[in-house]
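Module 6 notes. Inverse folding takes a fixed backbone as the condition and produces residue identities as the prediction. Think of it as a translation problem where the source language is geometry and the target language is the twenty amino acids. Below is one complete input and output pair. Work through it position by position during the lab.
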């Protein structure tokens, strides 16, 4: 068994696609219209284009807002993305205007940082020494 797909709820799929591709560097994998306004919209790592996909899922369900608001209020990231060097990625993303809620923090062999994905979620980046 392996993880094939996971998702983040987003307020605006077009804005989310721009952020996740132009800023974070993912590549668009699927973009299939669903109804009049929504899409089955996934991105993947350019390093593993046939690997795990991230669904940029519309946040219409009534449970999404209180769930995400509670996570953000408590500073809890919705997802964790692996990077080779958190400090370097932190600097690269800050130069692109990304707002971090947690600067790089070393916790033993792991370094993490947390940013706002502009779509309603906190996302953590992590690397191991």
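Target side of the pair, the amino acids:
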């Amino acid at each position: 068994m392996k993880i094939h797909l996971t998702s983040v709820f987003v307020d605006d799929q077009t804005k989310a696609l721009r952020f996740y591709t132009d800023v974070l560097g993912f590549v668009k994998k699927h973009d299939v219209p669903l109804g009049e306004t929504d899409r089955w919209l996934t991105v993947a790592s350019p390093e593993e284009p046939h690997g795990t996909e991230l669904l940029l899922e519309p946040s219409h369900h009534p449970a999404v807002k209180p769930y995400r608001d509670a996570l953000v209020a408590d500073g809890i990231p919705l997802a964790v993305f692996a990077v080779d060097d958190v400090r370097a990625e932190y600097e690269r993303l800050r130069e692109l205007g990304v707002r971090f809620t947690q600067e790089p923090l070393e916790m033993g062999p792991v370094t993490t940082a947390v940013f706002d994905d502009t779509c309603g979620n906190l996302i953590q980046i992590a690397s191991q020494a």
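Reference fact for the lab report: DSSP finds three helices and eight strands in the chain.
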